[in-house]
Specification:
Blueprint (H helix, E strand, L loop, with lengths): L1 H10 L2 E2 L3 E2 L20 H31 L3 H26 L15 H10 L2 H13 L5 E8 L4 E8 L10 E7 L6 H4 L3 H7 L6 H16 L1
Antiparallel strand pairs: 1-2, 3-4, 3-5
Helix pairs in contact: 1-3, 2-3, 5-7
Length: 225
């Protein structure tokens, strides 16, 4: 339900004159080769320019059909479009988070600085290394395609590790996404072939912990309101 609400909110964006705003692929906050050797520039071009762009195109097309169905007051048509909107919308949202979750090693990737997030990780998991082992084990267990996540779980008032299938978002579980690891083959296969365990191990070298910590701070502040 939360995922549906999130995507529905995206679908109802308007500007004066009732012109629907189309979604666009956000620019990467770094060069395509920034994450090498962990993730190659070749994968980044394919992943960002092709795969993410395909989700955005699919979302825009589905929203056009949704607007038409709403205009016709076709409730059945609106309901039938929701899985498509959730899939492409989830792909767009998840990847938009993913790009900002990463940064090159030379620019601080992999460094967990002193912060409330670091305190929370050490309190709940003992160390960043222990957390990464939990995340990698759960993510490696995904059957098919999906995502591994470090989230803020309002139900427990702390961090949690979950996985989602395909392009489902953590909000479907009531969680706030902090760090996402894309476990779809297109995220790693050109570099790691079938040894995805090495991809899961190496990606921690390019995690942008400043971004993750900011998301954690915002999640905690929101719950306190």
């Amino acid at each position: 339900m939360l995922a549906t609400k999130t995507i529905a909110a995206l679908a109802t964006r308007r500007v004066p004159g009732s012109i629907r705003l189309k979604h666009t692929v956000p620019d990467l906050p770094y060069d395509y080769n920034e994450l090498e050797p962990v993730i190659s520039a070749k994968i980044m071009h394919l992943h960002h320019d092709k795969h993410h762009a395909a989700y955005v195109a699919g979302l825009n097309a589905a929203e056009e059909k949704l607007a038409e169905a709403q205009h016709r007051k076709d409730l059945a048509g609106q309901v039938a479009l929701q899985p498509l909107i959730n899939f492409h919308g989830g792909g767009h949202v998840n990847h938009s988070i993913f790009w900002t979750n990463l940064i090159g090693e030379k620019n601080g990737g992999g460094h967990l600085h002193a912060s409330p997030l670091k305190t929370a990780i050490e309190a709940q998991y003992g160390s960043l290394g222990a957390l990464s082992q939990v995340v990698n084990a759960k993510t490696a267990g995904i059957f098919g395609s999906g995502w591994g996540w470090v989230t803020y779980n309002p139900a427990i008032g702390g961090l949690d590790v979950v996985t989602t299938a395909n392009q489902d978002m953590p909000s479907t579980l009531g969680h706030v996404p902090l760090l996402g690891i894309d476990a779809w083959e297109h995220a790693y296969y050109l570099d790691y072939n079938n040894v995805k365990a090495d991809y899961f191990k190496n990606i921690w070298r390019v995690v942008n912990w400043k971004d993750v910590a900011r998301r954690y701070d915002e999640a905690v502040a929101h719950q306190k309101k």
